Amino acid sequence: MSAVFIRGNTAQVATGTALKTIMQIFAVANHRIRVPVISISFEGVSATDAPIQVDIYRQTTAGTMTSLTLAKDNDGDDETIQTTAQHTATAEPTKTDLLMSRLVHPQGRADFGPFIVKGGGRIGIMVTAPNAVDCVVSALIEE
User: Fold this and answer.
1) What's the mean per-residue pLDDT of the chain?
2) Which tens digit of pLDDT belongs to each residue from 74-116?
3) Can you tell me the distance from the alpha carbon of 75 to that of 133, in angstroms, rounded to the nearest whole number?
């Protein structure tokens, strides 16, 4: 790791009510990364809705998602960003180890981390919402 910090931010994503990967972060082969913090917030409208389960999983496949553009914190850093990310799964990736789990109020926000992702590894931010709401995910990543 060379202390190049990059960020990934989704636009608003509808959770639906089934398990859904909102964001996936992928470290290229032979290049591990550190993810100090992943933040997720929800735009629920009812204070009495049931909490949303947010899980951070290791994932072994890409699933089907939309590519997410990552940006350097310091645009003067010369290094090329190696890490990739995607968002809003339409076909779920294969998940393995559960790294962290929380119940989050549908009008709330939660932070997760830190995580180390091995070279060629993936982590996914997955939600299961009893009532569909929109959410936004942001991740700080160190290469």
Assistant:
1) 95
2) 988 888 999 999 999 999 999 999 999 999 999 999 999 999 9
3) 34
**Spatial separation of the C-alpha atoms in residues 42 and 137, rounded to whole Å:** 9
Compute the distance between CA of residue 86 and CA of residue 105 in angstroms, rounded to an integer: 25
Closest by CA position to 105, among listed 40, 24, 57, 20: 40
pTM of model > 0.90? yes
Q: Do β-strands 20-26 and 109-112 pair in parallel, antiparallel, or remain unpaired?
A: unpaired
Domain 5-142 has CATH 1.10.1060: no
